[in-house]
Amino acid sequence: GCTGLTSISFPESLETIGGFSGCTGLTSISLPESLKTIGESAFYGCTGLTSISFPESLETIGEDAFRDCTGLTSISFPESLEIIGESAFYDCTSLTSISFPESLEIIGSYAFRGCTGLTSISFPESLEIIGSYAFRGCTGLTLVTCNAIVPPIVENLSFDNYTLNHGTLYVPSVSIQKYQNDPWWRYFQNIQGI
After folding, report:
1. pTM value?
2. Res 4: pLDDT
């Protein structure tokens, strides 16, 4: 990685970005409004990044894109985002706040695994799939809201046991029964209506 690189500005026509893994000195990124995809391992291990502002054109965040970016404290995704790839924010331990957009459909396996600073998350109605181990190891996560009327597909062990046993899952009141009878969501010990 380019450890001396502190900031990057990209041209406005760029649609895909990648190749900056290990740039530990990188503290800010100016992403172009044309950007559609952040590629695999694009900013893996860029520990100096504290926040990211994503353009409204972004649709996909690739596998391992921001993995081990331990300086990231909050993320606000654009309303255009549909897919968060596998391990995209794995071990971003300083992350305390995430705002998921209404456009989001898929959260990949291990996407937020080990994000120990997370205490609450809210999933949009559009969410269809939460991948295996997506929020495993998020030991501080005690408040989960899922706005989907139809429970999203949850793959193997997506949440930590602490979250399942001590956390609260808030779901649409009309769907409480669906979540309580779902093969996976039913493992939440406390399911409440909103």
Report:
1. 0.94
2. 83
